[in-house]
């Protein structure tokens, strides 16, 4: 595949003796949305943490923007344009909305451009503009997610990674969020999206990878995967299938007795 912004080759990662990722390969092309879906414990967040350098891969290689970043420190990856919106948003609720946004641009020297971009974020999110000098604790969960996204955009990402961005949001904000991701993508942003809201993630993504117990179970065109029976099978996971089969056998035995 040509024009890749991210190329992960046969990456494995462990927590002690537990293998969280096993030989995972994944690519994101410039201007593409790729989503990674799977059940809890499939390894989705570990994948993002490994890409960002929070977890050191046991083996494999990570290439970002043409450079091998496998052993780079976190700050160097971020400086190169690899930006994560973490699960739970992680905004600083004791700081103002304006201060949270400025944190996203703390490494930048182009102050005039930063000011222009913050004003653009306020135009996009009027609720943030109205309370720019208020502590971020005054925001709803959906508004906090918009603030986290705006903060990430001020870091000038080449690749924006999002970890469960719709978690805990109302249906209205979920719809707004996914439309916003698509809007930023139309403007040229590359996105790697980790989501349990599978239907919405597959609806906006170009390609998808399904993780099952740390391994790639399925990958390809997002629309094709959305209609695949293998998707539901992967969501069960090997351990869950085993429990289901045992439970079924017990019930059958009970009926026979």
TrEMBL record:
Species assigned in the record: Bradyrhizobium japonicum
The ABC transporter domain, residue ranges: 6-238
This protein's name: ABC transporter ATP-binding protein
Example GO molecular function: ATP hydrolysis activity
Keywords annotated in UniProt: Amino-acid transport, ATP-binding, Nucleotide-binding, Transport
A Pfam family reported for this protein in Swiss-Prot or TrEMBL: ABC_tran
Family statement: Belongs to the ABC transporter superfamily.
PANTHER family: HIGH-AFFINITY BRANCHED-CHAIN AMINO ACID TRANSPORT ATP-BINDING PROTEIN LIVF
Role, per record: Involved in beta-(1-->2)glucan export. Transmembrane domains (TMD) form a pore in the inner membrane and the ATP-binding domain (NBD) is responsible for energy generation.
One BP annotation, GO: L-amino acid transport
PROSITE patterns assigned: ABC_TRANSPORTER_1, ABC_TRANSPORTER_2
Entries under Gene3D superfamilies matching the protein: P-loop containing nucleotide triphosphate hydrolases
């Amino acid at each position: 595949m040509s024009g890749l912004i991210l190329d992960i080759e046969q990456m494995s990662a462990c927590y002690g003796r537990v293998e969280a990722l096993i030989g995972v390969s994944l690519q994101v092309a410039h201007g593409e949305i790729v989503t990674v879906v799977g059940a809890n414990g499939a390894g989705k967040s570990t994948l993002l943490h490994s890409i960002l350098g929070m977890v050191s891969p046991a083996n494999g290689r990570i290439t970002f923007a043409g450079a091998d970043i496998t052993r780079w420190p976190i700050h160097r990856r971020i400086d190169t344009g690899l930006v994560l919106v973490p699960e739970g948003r992680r905004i600083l609720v004791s700081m103002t909305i304006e201060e949270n946004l400025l944190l996203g641009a703390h490494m930048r020297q182009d102050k005039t451009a930063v000011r222009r971009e913050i004003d653009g974020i306020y135009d996009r999110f009027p609720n943030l503009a109205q309370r720019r000098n208020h502590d971020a604790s005054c925001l709803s969960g959906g508004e906090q997610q918009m603030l986290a996204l705006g903060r990430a955009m001020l870091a000038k990402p080449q690749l924006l990674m999002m970890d469960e961005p719709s978690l805990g949001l109302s249906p209205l904000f979920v719809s707004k969020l996914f439309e916003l991701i698509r809007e930023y993508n139309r403007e040229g942003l590359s996105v790697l999206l980790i989501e349990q809201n599978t239907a919405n993630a597959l609806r906006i993504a170009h390609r998808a990878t399904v993780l099952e117990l740390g391994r790639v179970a399925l990958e390809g065109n997002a629309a094709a995967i959305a209609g695949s029976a293998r998707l539901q099978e992967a969501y069960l996971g090997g351990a869950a299938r085993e429990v289901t089969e045992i439970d079924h056998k017990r019930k059958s035995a009970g009926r026979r007795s």
